[in-house]
Write a structure and sequence with these properties.
It is built from five helices and no strands. The protein has 149 residues and is mostly helical. The protein has one domain. It is globular, with a radius of gyration of 17 Å.
Length: 149
């Protein structure tokens, strides 16, 4: 029974992270921490790293904290929460940073309906270079309207 509960908490955490990605992007990245996120929309440096990567570091610390708390106390749900956050971060990195922005040159030839929809939705967001008017959504559960033929 504990394994089923562990898996359920993991999946719920993973799903909540999609909301957190949307919320963080809309109200924090395009809000009071725009100074960290703006180089993601308009690159103003020659480095492979972006100031925007600070958000990844923040969520990695949150994930590791839950895992460490789960390891060092009776708060066993720290494990599935921490690993759910980590799994979402890995999925987000694969879709957003590798597939869409090609930070590593793989998945370039993916051209199925899902790949086209995700790319189309992200282009809509990036057509605005400024802080305002960028439509925000999660990266894994993209609105269906972008998946047209």
């Amino acid at each position: 029974m504990k394994i089923a509960l562990w898996i359920l908490i993991f999946l719920i955490t993973f799903s909540i992270m999609e909301f957190m990605a949307w919320f963080t992007h809309k109200y924090i990245m395009h809000g009071f921490l725009w100074s960290l996120h703006k180089d993601h929309h308009k690159k103003d440096h020659d480095s492979w790293f972006e100031r925007n990567d600070a958000f990844f570091i923040f969520y990695a610390v949150v994930s590791m904290s839950f895992i460490m708390i789960g390891n060092s106390s009776d708060f066993w749900i720290g494990y599935p929460i921490g690993f759910g956050i980590m799994a979402y971060g890995a999925a987000y990195f694969m879709v957003h940073d590798i597939f869409i922005h090609q930070r590593f040159k793989i998945f370039r030839n993916a051209n199925n309906w899902y790949a086209r929809g995700v790319r189309r939705a992200h282009k809509i967001h990036h057509k605005h270079l400024g802080k305002e008017e960028g439509e925000c959504f999660g990266m894994l559960f993209v609105p269906f309207k972008y998946f047209k033929k």
